[in-house]
Amino acid sequence: MSSRTNRLIDQKSPYLLQHAHNPVDWFPWCQEAFDKAKSEQKLILVSIGYATCHWCHVMERESFEDLETADYLNRNFVAVKVDREERPDIDQVFMDALHALGEQGGWPLNMFATPDGRPFTGGTYFPPKPMYGRQSFRQILESLRYYWQEEKAKIHETADQVTAYLRRAPAPQPLDEPLPQWNCVEETVQAYRQAFDSEDGGFALQRPNKFPPSMGLQLLLRYHLRTRIPSDLFMVELTLFKMRNGGIYDQVGGGLCRYSTDYRWLVPHFEKMLYDNALFAQTSLECFQVTSNPFYREIAEDIFQYVTRDMMAESSAFCSAEDADSEGHEGLFYLWTADEFKKTVEDKYSDSLANYWNVTPQGNFEGRNILNVSQSTKVFGEQLGLEENEWQTIIKSARSNLQDVRAQRIRPLKDDKILVSWNALMISSFAQAARILEHNEYGITANNALAFIEEHLINQEGRLLRRYRDGDAKFPAYLSDYAQLGLACLDIYAWNYEPQYVLKAHHWANEINRLFLNPDGAYFETGFDAEEVLVRKADGYDGVEPSGNTSTALLFLKLASFGMGSGLLRDAERILHSFSPHLHQAGVNFSAMLNALIWARKGGTEIVVSGDESNLETKEVLQWLRQSFLPEVVVAFIPSDDPDPVSQQIPIAEGRASLDERLLIHVCQGQLCHAPVQDLPSLKKLIGQILNN
Q: Taking the model in full, what pTM does it have?
């Protein structure tokens, strides 16, 4: 091994490969590292991050590329690098350990552990010199080396305490009481109201930053469907408008950045994550269903254009993320000087376009401009004496020119690994768009991505794997991977009504119960066949994506509504029982799980449509069901020319085929089935009655 190449050179993770030429003698997470630490009695540094993490890059340049620091680290520690996106189980345990020590989490996450892997101290970013009120990384290393030599017993004592804390309650237990009550939904909505930024949208929850609150907005839309309170819908609409027009959204190429560093959505942390864009698109589509405002449809379509252009991997699946940095500077790829901007658009409207995107000579970020919009296209066009569609055409042309010029710049790193749960979220987004917008190309994109996962990320034993990159599939998939993939299959079914997709979803649900089941509480994040990192955890926190338990509950509830087994309903309710205290005490952290609770408390509505798909009345009913915002409804379709396969594969379709090819619609909720109806007005009236109950 050369002094400038370490063991990470053989890994597939872009994050680990970024560190493959550090002078640090890195190990990937492996038994060899722990064996070395034990044999040489050295402490372990577990350094966790991901490929598009800005501060991970900073610490690498400042410390892990520094020869003196690396030499000291190599002589006195065993250094282990982990990609948190490949191994969320490792990340979660060590992040929980940091929280147990009273520290705030984030990445890079640098935790120190005893030779047997028990964490006892750590932090996030450590500077090369004392600053920001923090010790330097070298000071931390020297202090720990001293304590390991002089007060080893105290380190073991702290490690014992942290480990005991982590193992105290690995999985929430169900309460011996009814399902969580409606008031936990109402209290969470009230918390959102109190935290709402009425000027710039979003919520004052994580100062000084603002993160995309997509799951919270979806909860507000479901609550609004039940109560029709206008202010709750206003919160959703203002937030979507401000985010889409803010600097957090790439005004040139499309796509949402990870978060804003200010409350105006102006200065983003420029990295783009697949899951953020999937959830933002889903929320926009739902808001379009509720309001019929084309602005929200256009948000989703713009995201899909960005994803298909810049984030496709191997022609079908989706890449994970794009970095914030290029050429060593954060955001450089996305910034414009005023002269550069006006020269690029080269149009008689160049001054107007500069005003529209708030481009100024002084700039708004390090002397350059982050493009952002303050007014709607309609209002701005009126000020210019133009119709809205005329002004939109001018904007579209300018965006195209800006994209062409920007394409000549050095792009940020693309993390091109394929992760199942993140892909599944985007598959769901495309499938939902295909259904709602009647755009079959979106459905084909979703189907192709699913086919890629089925071909490349399932091993010979049928075990789903977490990550694919460069021909290599690895790591047993986690609960969220299985559950999100099942939900993606159901979203594809809701678009094409091919029963095989319900059966695929049911297969993944059965696999969840085989691999992750905890009969005494919430489901475990890792399968029984996976490596256990100190403790086998179960979590319900809806962080940047819905938790594994949240997605599992929703998958089971939907499948139960399709009649795929009462046991799945009980399993979903056990999850909700287990997290009941959390839903009541900290609902904003469990917004997506509260959507599952709404489904469980209301009971899913089952609609079976049977008829000739070429018949106008049948088409109108299916179109209305596809386009309406009915979040707790499942729809099965029995085409009159081939009813048997559907009724044999989807239980709620059994015995409900139309015998004379005329349109026939069955509607059930819970244990109550209504008399069949045969036209769209009757269906609308019946659904309206159900929604108002």
A: 0.96
